[in-house]
Design brief:
Layout: H1 2-17, H2 20-54, H3 94-121, H4 136-141, H5 144-148, H6 155-176, H7 179-185, H8 190-199, H9 205-220, H10 228-246, H11 251-270, H12 273-287, H13 293-313, H14 328-331, H15 349-382, H16 385-407, H17 417-424, H18 432-451, H19 459-476, H20 479-482, H21 487-503, H22 508-517, H23 525-539, H24 546-553, H25 558-586, H26 589-597, H27 609-622, H28 627-642, H29 648-660, H30 667-682
């Protein structure tokens, strides 16, 4: 039946092509199509150049991006390209789940190692948890350099000099290595990971290794930004490289592996598995259309496994242990108006804190934009990057010195976990003005770092600064308004509010704070969610998210890159469908049946007969497939299956575009050919 449809469609095509009127009309259509193609190719070329800067060597060098997007992206074995004879059920493939769990376990161990490294490199200055915050063992190891120079050099000078030396070294390394390395090792790491998900290209292992070295240098110098973004990038790179080594190289499957690495790194780095999967649903779903329900389920189990391994190697420690009133559960027990949001509805202060966080986020947005413009348009034109890094490193450490002098808080030097922990346990010695000074100092140092693309994360500084802003509000308002021991709740409201304002995730900040601060925080879930909603709603009218601003400054459109990768996928698939339909119309029945056997089942997986034949010839030369090849093939097959939507309409539209660009075809004929080509790859006998 499929052969008859294809044959009749091609016969009608030939008859119409002989008609002069139809031929003239088709010439006009062809001219219009060519103009559209030129516009598309111009846009595709722009996005291709962006991808080429971050992943050199992975793009086709031919002038037309439509003729081939990626090189060396076919799968190594024929088993990777051929789906089964029948459609797989909707249940999760066990082999794929096991493969994801193995990768997740490795990533959990990797995160534990990176966190331990960050902690130990902070020992000379007593930062990043190498102090009393992590217990007596690290308290003895902390402040090694400061103690050695005590009485000779002030602590502030030690921190400033260390920051300048380390940032100078980072700048020199970034300038000595090729530019493609600088693209991957500078910045927070989140953008590079999202780009890997969108493009379906793995981050090179050399870049990941250099990123680890840069991380160590940055945190040795007391860098004020976080370590979770670089950790996530390394996890994304390792997950992609595992697939590449195994022969899983297709863009779609590489995108899925990058998503798995991203979410496992996020979950285990924050010790927050639910936040990892929510981040995938709220952010990665905008980058990749391949995140189906079954893919998200696999990412969920991967997040659980990676977090469990990390906890086994380190410990299941709440990052910030908030201290609430003993009667917190009674305050929100319900049953009356005063037991929903606390007595006198005091918890509704979360709305005001959300508004304040939106205003702070707007001020940060303006300062960040101006600082980045000043650096890129003025400073870098007259000074080399390594000198700018050294000066800015000294300035951020200088801000930390000023904050330390005024408040006694060291948190601008390093990530600042210890100081936020002290605030959340309600240190009575901390004053409201001290909290405000720290928040402004942390945001100022963070602004300098992210504007220059220092190799640190944007997530933790925002959480920590938001906690201090909320704590400031809690200290300023009298006890008669908030009640006793309400400061911890205000700090939680501030953390969630500033995170939602800066990143525009409505649910992720709520869940991540629950996972970071302990189970009792769930009692204030309603005002926490109100703070997130208020900050997000107001910020949407004022300024774009930080990540979006960074992408715009770097000239990256993640959705366009993802569309380019999927366009290449569909283009290759549609061309092969069309060629197979035409071949069946003129070929023998036996030859057609041989091709049909090589087609993918149901969703028309885009590794079809043409590639199958070449792979089978490789397999015949090798003699047989090894067990490893069979296993990897089943994995690839499962990954295509779980990430497949119903793509029949999209594929038919792409075939239509190909057919109508040929001379002498009417829309009716093109539709017939498109229907035949689409049916040929989706029908199951």
């Amino acid at each position: 039946m499929r052969d008859d449809a294809a044959s009749s469609a091609v016969d009608v095509t030939r008859e119409d092509a002989e008609c002069p009127v139809l031929a003239e009309r088709s010439d006009e259509n062809e001219q219009e199509v060519d103009e559209d193609v030129e516009e598309i190719e111009e846009e595709v070329g722009k996005e291709s150049s962006i991808v080429a800067e971050y992943f050199p060597g992975n793009l086709d060098e031919t002038p037309s991006a439509r003729n081939g997007y990626l090189t060396e992206r076919s799968d190594r074995f024929s088993m990777l390209s051929v789906a089964g004879d029948a459609a797989m059920p909707e249940s999760l493939p066990i082999l794929l789940v096991l493969f994801a769990c193995l990768i997740a376990a490795l990533l959990g161990a990797l995160v534990a190692g990176l966190h331990t490294m960050i902690k130990y490199v902070g020992c000379p200055l007593g930062t990043n948890g190498c102090n009393s915050f992590s217990g007596y063992e690290y308290e003895k190891k902390g402040f090694l350099l400061v103690k050695a120079l005590e009485g000779y050099v002030p602590e502030a000078v030690v921190n400033v000099v260390m920051a300048m030396v380390c940032m100078l070294a980072i700048g020199i390394v970034a300038d000595v290595f090729p530019e493609r390395y600088g693209k991957q090792v500078l910045g927070g790491g989140t953008v590079q990971s999202l780009l890997a998900v969108a493009a379906g290209i793995p981050i090179a292992f050399r870049c990941a290794a250099l990123r680890v070295v840069i991380m160590a240098l940055y945190f040795t110098g007391g860098g004020t930004m976080g370590g979770d973004g670089p950790t996530i990038q390394v996890c994304t790179a390792v997950a992609g490289m595992i697939g590449w080594i195994c022969g899983i190289r297709a863009p779609r499957t590489q995108s899925l592996l990058a998503s798995l690495g991203f979410c496992c790194g996020f979950a285990s780095s924050f010790n927050a598995p639910l936040s990892g999967i929510l981040f995938a649903m709220e952010e990665l779903s905008h980058v990749s259309s391949r995140l189906t329900t079954r893919v998200i389920c696999i990412i969920l189990v991967g997040s659980i496994v990676s977090t469990a391994v990390m906890r086994g190697l380190l410990e299941n420690k709440v990052l910030f242990k908030a201290v609430y009133p003993d009667n917190l559960e009674d305050m929100v027990a319900g049953g009356s108006i005063e037991t929903i949001f606390g007595k006198s509805m005091w918890m509704l202060v979360s709305i005001g804190i959300g508004l304040l966080c939106a205003f702070v986020g707007y001020i940060f947005h303006k300062g960040f934009g101006f600082t980045h413009w000043l650096l890129t348009k003025k400073v870098y034109e007259c000074c080399p990057r390594y000198l700018v890094f050294m000066i800015l490193g000294g300035m951020t450490a200088g801000i930390g010195a000023l904050v330390f002098h005024l408040t006694g808080l060291r948190g601008v030097w390093g990530i600042g976990i210890k100081d936020l922990g002290e605030v959340l346990v309600q240190n009575p010695n901390i004053k409201a003005v001290d909290l405000l000074i720290f928040a402004l100092g942390k945001l100022g140092a963070f602004m300098l770092g992210v504007s220059a693309r220092f190799p640190g994360d944007t997530l933790e500084p925002v959480l920590i600064s938001g906690g201090f802003i909320g704590g400031f509000v809690g200290k300023v308002l009298p006890d008669s308004v908030l009640g006793e021991e309400a400061n911890a709740a205000c700090e939680i409201f501030g953390m969630v509010g500033l995170f939602a304002s800066c990143f525009r995730f409505p649910v992720t900040p709520v869940v991540i704070v629950l996972e970071l601060t302990g189970t009792r925080t769930y009692n204030i879930i309603l005002p926490v969610a109100l703070s997130s909603f208020t900050a997000l709603a107001v910020s949407n009218h004022l300024f774009p998210p930080i990540l979006e601003q960074i992408l715009h400054q770097d000239g990256i459109d993640l959705e366009a890159v993802a569309e380019l990768a999927e366009f290449a996928d569909d283009e290759e698939l549609s061309m092969r469908d069309l060629e197979e339909a035409e071949a069946r119309s003129v070929g023998s029945h036996s030859h057609s049946e041989k091709q049909v056997e090589g087609e993918a089942s149901q969703d028309g997986s885009h590794f079809e007969t043409k590639r199958t034949n070449s792979m089978e010839s490789w397999g015949q030369r090798a003699g047989r497939h090894s067990t490893f090849q069979v296993v990897i093939g089943r994995l690839e097959e499962s990954m295509f299956d779980v990430s497949s939507h119903d793509r029949t309409d999209r594929r038919r539209a792409s075939v239509m575009e190909q057919v109508t660009s040929r001379p002498g075809l009417t829309l009716e004929v093109a539709a017939a050919v498109a229907d035949a080509a689409t049916a040929a790859s989706t029908d199951v006998d």
